[in-house]
Amino acid sequence: MSYADAIESGIYKYIWSMPFEDHLASHKLRILRAAPAGTPDTLSVGCGDGGAEAALVGKLQITCQDTHDLAKRLHPELTFVEKIPDKKFDYIVAIGAVLTSVPTEEQDAFLEKLFSHLKPGGTLLLGLGYYSFPLEGDVREYRFENKTVLETYHNVTDYSFDVTTKVLGLGECTLRYYPCDVKAKLAKFAGPFRILH
Ligand SMILES: C[S@@+](CC[C@H](N)C(=O)[O-])C[C@H]1O[C@@H](n2cnc3c(N)ncnc32)[C@H](O)[C@@H]1O
Prior knowledge:
By secondary structure, this protein is α/β, with parallel strands linked by helices.
């Protein structure tokens, strides 16, 4: 099942390891915490259902993008684009396992694209979402000197995994996450970084 199907069926609300309202509140906080000062021109890539972004309208100047348009359908007040516009942003957000939803061999191009739309000194907030799942692997948080922020994650580099969520009355969905050696990948694009424990 695709993300769009999971959202439309209602199962998406249950894929998180916490009540959906808490997920939205946590996303909202995390996006605000890493945001540059003022009202930054912000792009949320892989915005999903757009719930967190809708709650941030007015606080950030936010444009949402995804490969499906469920966010626009659920939150018509959002500025939604099918393709990333030909401009640079102060702040780009891709959280909730967006990068790890992209097949490994496409992740470099995906990251390259994100960085190409970031203004010099801009902030990229990248969250992989693995922290929700009881998986083996490193759990660390990386914070880049050039303001690229990578949230806590499990560094799964060698296998894909499927996460199945079954909801009585709604059915089930299986979503695939791809391996990503994010530390190595980001080293290509970003400057030196510190590890925060
Ligand atoms: C786990 S969902 C996260 C959604 C939202 N950010 C959240 O945390 O609630 C991952 C999202 O990434 C989107 N996605 C996957 N590949 C993408 C790509 N190449 N470009 C943009 N979005 C993508 C999926 O369609 C899905 O909506």
